[in-house]
Amino acid sequence: MRQIPGAWRRTARGAGLLGPGDVPAPTIFAEMTALAARTGAVNLGQGFPDEDGPAEVLAAAQEAIRAGANQYAPGRGVPELLQSVAAHQKRFYGLDVDPDREVVVTAGATEALAATLLALVDGPADEVVVFEPYYDAYAALVALSGATLVPVPLRFPDFQPDLDELARAVTDRTRLIIVNDPHNPTGAVFSAEARAEIVRLAERHDAWIVTDEVYEHLVFDGAHVPLATLPGAAERTLSISSGGKTFSATGWKVGWVTGPADLVDAVLAVKQFLTYTNATPFQHAIAAGLALPGAYFAGIAATLRAKRDLLAAGLHDAGYAVSPAAGTYFTVADASHELEPGQDAGDFCRALPGRVGVAAIPLTAFVSPAHRSEYASLVRFAACKRLEVIAEASARLRGSA
Ligand code: GLN
To answer: How many CA atoms lie within 13 A of 36 on its CB side?
Structure first.
């Protein structure tokens, strides 16, 4: 087989996706969605909704195409979306964001994370603190940027960080702390104490904070609190979000970064050579979405909450210990009672579609190889599906379908 040099190998290895003989594997999401399709399983694996988002937002995309918004957008994003993002940050969080200097639009939150990491870290001496389990792209992108990943564990069932462990992880070598709140894959929402401690440590060690808030409108009790709203945080925080979850349009890939102008400029310096600009009509549509009335945003949280409740009850009835999700598309359950001797959640999830007709994601896909054994029986189920789909999956898991 020929040798292909380049950064791909360390990126794939960073994500735990380099197989024997240096063969790159697809992400766990692609693998499980393909397996669900092949077996006809109910797909509670990859997190995407099975219904369309609001008609106004879909119509706005069609209208933008019809009206000729089909050429390159400005590098920072179309002015309507820059303004809409700034207005959203003010309306929901009281944050003052200058639409001309403190926002950049990206190809989803994924490009925002990639451009931010490539912009702000520079080689192995730079450490990036993440909460483990972590969204798979974090380890891959940290590896691509050449930096060193420093995981802080979140443990079943409440998945809150231990503040002493967190304090030990953040040092003067820490260049940035990535905070995904609400948290994928665990469904946790960080406690006020954890949020305050992250900001205190970042100030003390002069680290940047990068937040991933793609589930900001999918919190079930109370409201989401962006770290940028905490005293002292705004000047060192880049906040990332995306329209995919909020508008049930994960295929549109419209994301954004907000924060201090100098940091946003650094991100833009990289972003403009990754994608240059992003899909113009979808930017117009997300601009319209962000301006929807408050009832829309409250409604999506309430709808998903009912789905989460049904999923949690179904898993409980099937004998799983369930971590109560406070937000996001996801619920984590302990499958210990289902595991054969020597089997882990990865083996279990690869067998489940064929055996029972349900696809799910093992938490081992979200942790570094050295820590897999600590998450070996935990499985993530997606609740962002129609109620009848969740009911069918629950019946299959109970063995009564
Ligand atoms: N964010 C989605 C999830 O966690 C999937 C995204 C992807 O396929 N990369 O399931």
So the answer is: 18
